[in-house]
Each structure stands twice: as C-alpha cells, then as structure tokens.
Design goal:
39% helix, 251 residues, globular, disordered N terminus, alpha+beta, 10 strands
Length: 251
C-alpha cells in the first residue's frame, strides 16, 4: 500500500521541473510587462488632449527673424509648378506694393490661414497689390512639399497668386526667411526699388488658441501702403513651422 501511494504522488522528474521553472519566470515577466504597459498607457491617456496637442505644435514652431525695415526686395527668378512659367521680381515693378509670402503644403500654421490668405489676396489684388507665394522646403525631408504637390495645392485652393518653387533655397536665405507662413510687405515709390515696410504676423490666431482668423495685422499694413500712409514699426513676428532646409545645409 505504501509503495502504491508513493508511486501515485511522485515528484516531477528533472525535465518537468526545469520546464515549470522556466514557465513561471516567463509568466512573471509577462505580468510585470503588462502592468508597466498599462501604467504607461494610463499616464498618456490622463494627460489633457489640449496639452498633448500644444506640445506637438510647440515642438515645431519658430518665429520670423528680425529683418530691418527699409530692406530692399532681393532679386529672384523662380518657376511656378502649376504653369511652368518663370517669375522674376521685375514682373511686379509696375505695382505700388508687393506681398511676398513663404508658405508650404504641409505646415499646420499655413493650413490654419490658407483660406483666409486666398480671400485677403483676392480682395487686395483688385486694389493694386501684387502677391507671390514661395515654397523653399527641402523635398529630401518633406516630399509632400515638392513641385508637383505645389501645383495640386494651388489648383485645389484656387490660388490667385503665383506659387513658386525655391529648390536651391537661395531665395529664402536672401530674404532672411525662417518659417512658414512668413510675410514680407514691400512698397514702391515710382522708380525706386521695393522697400520692406512690414515683416510681421497675419494676425493673433494660431492653430491651438481658438482665436478667429481676421488678418487684422497684415490688413492694416496693406491698407496703409495702398493709401500712402506710414506703416507702424510696432510689428509682431510671424509664427509657424521652420523652413525645412536641405540636410547638408541645416541652418
């Protein structure tokens, strides 16, 4: 009887004991990993959605750099992907004022203002303002900002102004451009060269601050130029995504 009882309750052999020990360790590790993963997920999910959104936007934002008022508009000669036409600064010589905008396709700060930029341009181009937009972003890092997509964007939003491609990024450097969107408003007196009178923001609205887009700041500057009034030198810098420089020439 004792022999039968011992045989029925015998301890696991050596291979079985090794297997059970390994399985116990695996289950313990899995349990710890799941607990850590849950805690991390819980930590992420408890952060306010607005805070997460602001963090993403702030990581990319940059202000336009100081460019002296009175600065002469640099020469440029750039292609328009939509039409294939080459545009030069001299093409705008007959206008009393020229608005040069550095924009791109992907930037959320540009997208936030895009429809209102078109509305403002349509309104003031009828009053004598010349407008041109330039994209200088590297297609090596941001192919969505390349010329074929620029043409699609210009067509989709019915841009009333030429949207030019600065492949070499030389024009952005000549202007001292740093972000998208960035606005340079020049005035012209007779045969004198275009001179910078406004280098500031569109308005106070940003993608995450819930303020309405009005174009107040730039509208006031354009109105002053077209009516022959001086433009205030108290100007807030434009805020947006940094220009995406070619990898070998990071600024």
């Amino acid at each position: 009887m004792a022999t039968v009882a011992t045989a029925g309750a015998h301890a696991p052999d050596v291979p079985q004991r090794a297997f059970l020990a390994t399985r116990t360790k695996q289950l313990s590790f899995l349990s710890t990993s799941l607990k850590m993963g849950f805690n991390l997920l819980q930590l992420r999910s408890t952060a306010p959605a607005t805070a997460r959104k602001n963090l993403i936007i702030r990581a990319a934002r940059i202000e336009s750099q100081g460019v002296s008022l009175g600065f002469r508009a640099p020469h440029f000669e750039l292609p328009e992907p939509l039409t294939g036409k080459m545009w030069k600064l001299e093409d705008f010589e007959s206008y009393p004022a020229l608005l040069v905008m550095f924009i791109c396709n992907h930037c959320p700060f540009v997208k936030h203002l895009q429809k209102d930029i078109v509305k403002l341009s349509n309104f003031y181009m009828k009053k004598g303002l010349a407008v041109v937009a330039i994209s200088s972003n590297s297609v090596a890092t941001h192919p969505q900002d390349g010329p074929e997509f620029m043409a699609e964007e210009a067509k989709l939003f019915n841009y009333p102004f030429p949207y030019l491609y600065d492949e070499s990024q030389d024009v952005a450097r000549d202007f001292g451009a740093a972000c998208t969107p960035e606005f340079f408003l020049f005035k012209k007196d007779g045969r004198r060269p275009f001179q910078l009178v406004y280098h500031g923001q569109f308005d106070d609205s940003r993608p995450s601050n819930n303020l309405p887009v009005t174009g107040r700041d730039i509208r006031l500057a354009i109105e002053c130029v077209l009516s022959g009034q001086p433009v205030s030198s108290n100007q807030k810098p434009s805020v947006g995504c940094s220009i995406k420089w070619h990898p070998q020439t990071v600024q």
